[in-house]
Amino acid sequence: MLKALIMAGLIATAAAPTPDLHPAKLIGDYDGGQMEMAVGLSLKANGRFEYGLSYGALDEEAAGTWAANGNQVLLTSDPVTPPRFSVIGQKPAAAGALRITLDLPGQINRQLFDAHVLLADGRTVDQQLGDDGVSIPFAAGNPPVKIALSFDVFELASDPVTIDPARGYEIDFRFDPNDLGKVDFKATPLKRAGDDLLLERYGRSIRFRRVAKR
């Protein structure tokens, strides 16, 4: 029995695809641009890659290492410190209202953020923040019980925060951008389709085509 298990493990190991690292035929610059989206990828001979995308209000980039594995190219970013939401205070607000504020670096617009509030009866209220935050009215018998913030442009969201009514209904958040705009690829696959590379991102299929050398 033990011998059979060992042999099965050896066969499984032998059958597993092994990285081809960075073969010469994949090295080069790629253009993934399409309607309303500019995007590029560079696979370098030293095993490094560079990536950039601009899509509406979104701009993102990444750099790190790449390897080929079977019919895929795998991208792994250099270490990234992700953005972070945190609660910095809670205090009483005007009766019948949930007051939400957000402390931000000056270059980011609060109107790009949304509040998502769960009421006691199970209904949810979604509200865009204004320049000074947002106030959401509620009935005395149906108070808010949880809240989360989102930054939809970058597909970011805070953890849900349980509201303690004894502390009040004004919740003050802070957003630390850290490495906002840097993508944390973790062996993210790009499927090889002939000479092209395919990446699924933001609900769209990006086809990278090699840029001819001049």
Structure described in brief:
The chain is mainly beta and 214 residues long. It is 7% helix and 49% strand.
Explain this structure.
The protein has 214 residues and is mostly beta strands. Helices cover 7% and strands 49% of the residues. It has an eight-stranded antiparallel β-barrel. Strands 8, 9, 11, 12 and 13 form a five-stranded antiparallel sheet that branches. A four-stranded mixed sheet has the order 6-14-7-10, with no helix packed on it. It is elongated, with a radius of gyration of 24 Å. The termini are far apart. Mean pLDDT is 90; it is low at 1-17.
- The computed structural class is mainly beta
First and last CA, distance: 62 Å
Portion in beta strands: over 45%
C-alpha Rg (nearest Å): 24 Å
Q: What are the secondary-structure elements, in order, as H or E? A: HEEEEEEEEEEEEEEEEE
Give helix % range. under 10%
* Poorly predicted ranges: 1-17
Task: Strand order, main sheet: write it out.
Answer: 1-2-3-4-5-15-16-17
Put simply, the count of helices is 1
Shape: elongated
The overall pLDDT average reads: 90
The largest pleated sheet is described as: 8 strands, antiparallel, barrel
Total strand count, please? 17
